[in-house]
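Example protein as discussed:

>
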Amino acid sequence: MLNAPARRPSQTAIRRVGTLPVTSLRNGVGVDVVARLLTHRSSTTTSQTYVHLNVDDLRAELTRSGAWGKEDQS
């Protein structure tokens, strides 16, 4: 049918791909919100599954906080 309404992807498909949860978390959406969207019973499940820090994440946060990249100015 050409005029059939678009179907939303199933939660299983979203979980398998992982793009929505990872992208959402990296863009600042709270882990509790993402957990609810994925129908997880606990946000711990979400964070253990989708929160992956990499070297760039760590460097960016350390730079933002001022703990990385500043030369000693003594």
Q: What stands out?
A: The helical segments are 11-17, 19-26, 31-37, 43-50, 55-65. Residues 59 and 68 are 7 Å apart (CA to CA). The two ends are 72 Å apart (CA to CA). Residues 11-65 form one domain.
